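## retry 2 of 3
previous attempt timed out at serialization; input unchanged, resubmitting
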Amino acid sequence: MPKSKMPDFPLINLEKQKNFIGRSSSESSPWLNGTYDNFKMLSKAASAEELKKEYGSEAETTIKNVVISPVITSVGVAPNLPKTAKVEYSNGLCKYESITWGDIEKSLYAKRGEFEATGKLEAIDYPVSTKVQVVEGKEQNIALIATPTAIVNRRCGRLK
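## retry succeeded, writing output
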């Protein structure tokens, strides 16, 4: 069987793209402190079917954890609930799933305090909830009034 010829690819492009194995492309990210097992480098992105064939299992996948950010709202203002939740599955995969929230009575955010908003993950009909904190006072960006305690000179990476 004849071998297929690899397309011409100038290796200099790898340097320009700053592709790393063991670190993200951000230079501030640390390197992986560990080892790799079952590493493969492909010339294309693997399809869902290829990934399932290579790494999937016949075992039932269950939800291990659902991460939803807590919500803060002002008295009298309907809370802006997250549209998605990070779902962590038993097979090690994580996926963001859309949430459908139940109706929230106005009396729950009419006074200071906290309550729980409930809903369901749309795709898998799984119940979820998040804490909603109702606060008094004016919303303010404190970064505008904060005093910096250090200035980073990015050219040499040292604190001034």
